[in-house]
Amino acid sequence: MAKKILIVDDEAHIRMLIGQTLEELEDEDVEFLTADNGQTALEIIQAEKPDMVFLDVMMPKMNGMEVCRQVKQELKIEGVFIIILTAKGQELDKQKGQEVGADVYMTKPFDPEVLLNKAKEVLGIEN
Predict the structure, then answer these.
(1) pTM
(2) Is 79 helix (H, G, I), strand (E, B) or coil?
(3) pLDDT tens digits, residue range 12-22?
(4) CB 3.0 to 4.6 Å from 112: which of 13, 21, 46, 70, for a disulfide?
């Protein structure tokens, strides 16, 4: 069964950049889904149950922290690994990310290799 990664960012070029970074995973039967706002992301997570979500914080309709909180604490959807991506590296934001249940917190600009290796690790794909 194909693994699914959801890339959520309101900026198209960032969705594209993450997609390109993870491109080689397509050979590993990984399907990519995208959303440009938090509300759509939440709907996709509920419908598709992706294995992994790269989630931006600052977005229209619903921010990434709220999406994460709903998935992890309200809906309690199992098996969804959430990486919060944000331009904010402040300690308070990291703490908030942990409080809402994010599995990993990464700041932009991110290191493509770190992103790819994390995805491989979470999806159980050998390097």
Answers:
(1) 0.94
(2) coil
(3) 999 999 999 99
(4) 21
